[in-house]
Amino acid sequence: MxxxxxxxxxxxxxxxxxxxxxxNKGTRIVVGMATCGIASGARPVMMALIEEVKKRxxxxxxxxxxxxxxxxxxxxxxxVYKEGNEKVTYIKMTPEKAKQVILExxxxxxxxxxxxxxx
Length: 119
Fold this sequence. Notes:
It is built from four helices and four strands. The chain is an alpha+beta fold.
């Protein structure tokens, strides 16, 4: 059993993580990692995103995952939340496309229309 001090330490660490997420003023890239996304190749896409963010030292970019985004036939999907902009959803991603998203959209500020969901 954990002591009260141990539990308080765990609580503080969890709150720090939550506050860190709230205070992120940069860019958040969310990868759909439900069963349909994983089966379609979301894991290599996520790893490519993480590697590219690290390689380029993009401290203001967070790569995270979520469950089902809601369009299984368009997986793997990623959503880009850039401060001050509307969400952009990219579909049928590959590791190569993910690297292009980092370079073009995140670094250079140019959305890649041919990878985006069309309404």
